[in-house]
Design a protein that fits this description.
- This protein folds into 3 domains: about 150 residues, no CATH class; about 150 residues, no CATH class; about 60 residues, Arc Repressor Mutant, subunit A.
- It is about 45% helix and about 10% strand.
- The protein is built from 16 helices and 7 strands.
- The strands form 2 sheets. A 5-stranded antiparallel sheet has the order 2-1-5-4-3. A two-stranded antiparallel sheet has the order 6-7.
- Strand 1 and strand 2 form a beta hairpin.
- Helix 1 packs parallel to helix 6, helix 2 packs antiparallel against helix 6 and helix 6 runs antiparallel to helix 7.
């Protein structure tokens, strides 16, 4: 991470109630920021698993990441219904994606300087929810992130679901990397998130003795002498203390308890959904030392809120999306993956490989106006000699649109 905070999600909406495009950009920005962090330089099993799991949870038809290092590009794809023909279509649209994302190069450096489009771009027959080119154009390491569905229109609910992709992806990837290191803190966060997900799915209005006992067991199992779990009530936009290991804390106002841990500014950050987790501690007799990210009570509020927009209200749609990712699906996102390795994608058939080569040749030829030789010709672009390129053009039966047909030559 470079220390810059993600662009806060705008809460302003049109009178028609259409979700802001910035939701999607926020989600893509979170994914890209994680991927471009200094912790790793390549795709690995954790990254691939987090991407595929997130795509499945959100029922995303297509989820692709084009990762470029030193000119080499790798595509990782996940989601339901993804096949090679669709992946090839995305590959054909690569140049279009670069052009579309050129205007978003400054997104991280100065979010306010980038004008946000009112419509999602369309390219190659795919309806793109958002595209982001991170870091600077001169950086040899770059990321092109695309989250898309087919060309059918998206409902408000689907757009809202897509907005949480950044939270899901980031939390899933962080958990996998922490578990690989045997990090106890990751285990604590996972357990608390599972509890939060259970509370949200049950739409619990009151904490009974059984629930308090379960939360207490979690804290004791982790060796926490001071721990607290808060719930965010979406109707009042106030925090409610769900569990506290210290009896003295239970008689304090929730906002005061949070203020002791994170300060007044930290409470506002939590309420605005920008995420804050205090590290748990098992030593000392001070105040509460563990705070989980706020969760939303009542998972069914999503459908009601996307149907009516009310800027400025505690239950406005933007705030809902921020908390919904914690309340509704984070428990599933953080569920353990099978220990057995997943199977690799099937190898391409000879016919599929030939089609991919044909598409790649055609794209290079069209980009160079069918110029084969020279420093800016198609042969140089592909990395083969002009004679080899001519042989491949003949083998695939490709013909320049400017070349005369055999019928015109016979006249």
């Amino acid at each position: 991470m470079d220390g810059r905070e993600a662009d806060p999600i705008s809460v302003s909406e049109s009178s028609h109630g259409s979700p802001p495009v910035s939701w999607v950009e926020h989600g893509l920005g979170a994914v890209a920021e994680w991927l471009l962090s200094a912790t790793f330089e390549r795709f690995d099993d954790a990254l691939r698993g987090a991407l595929e799991e997130t795509a499945r949870l959100l029922h995303v038809e297509v989820a692709t990441l084009h990762w470029s290092t030193g000119g080499a590009t790798e595509i990782v794809a996940g989601g339901k219904g993804l096949d090679r023909s669709l992946e090839a279509m995305l590959a054909r649209a690569h140049d279009d994606l670069v052009a579309l994302t050129a205007r978003n190069v400054r997104w991280f450096a100065d979010p306010s300087s980038v004008a946000r489009s009112t419509e999602a771009p369309r390219f190659g027959g795919i309806h793109a929810l958002g595209v982001l080119r991170t870091r600077s154009a001169s950086d040899e390491r770059g990321l092109l992130a695309v989250w898309a569905t087919d060309a059918r229109p998206l409902s408000h609910s689907e757009r809202a679901q897509m907005a949480i992709v950044g939270e899901l992806f980031a939390s899933g990837l962080a958990r996998r990397r922490a578990e690989a290191r045997g990090d106890d803190l990751a285990r604590f966060h996972r357990v608390v998130a599972d509890v939060a997900g259970s509370l949200a799915s049950a739409e619990t209005d009151a904490l009974d003795a059984t629930l308090e006992g379960a939360l207490g067991s979690v804290a004791e199992a982790m060796g926490l002498k001071r721990a607290a779990i808060f719930l965010l009530d979406a109707e009042t936009a106030r925090f409610r203390l769900a569990y506290a290991s210290s009896p003295a804390v239970r008689f304090q106002r929730s906002d005061e308890v949070l203020g002791q841990v994170v300060g007044a500014h930290g409470v506002e950050r939590l309420r605005s959904g920008r995420g804050l987790v205090a590290t748990p501690s098992s030593e000392g007799e001070g105040g509460v030392t563990a705070v989980v990210r706020p969760i939303l009570l009542g998972g069914k509020l999503l459908g009601a809120l996307v149907a009516e927009s009310g800027p400025g209200r505690p239950t406005d749609a933007a705030a809902l999306v921020r908390y919904q990712c914690i309340a509704d699906v984070v428990a599933q996102s953080l569920a353990r993956r099978p220990a057995a390795p997943t199977s690799s994608p099937r190898p391409l058939s000879a016919t599929e490989m030939r089609e991919l080569e044909r598409v790649n040749l055609l794209r290079a030829l069209e980009a160079t106006s069918w110029r084969i030789g020279g420093p800016s010709g198609a042969a140089q672009r592909i990395g083969v000699s002009p004679s080899t390129l001519r042989d491949r053009i003949r083998a695939h039966g490709l013909q320049s649109p400017m070349a005369p047909s055999w019928r015109s030559r016979r006249r």
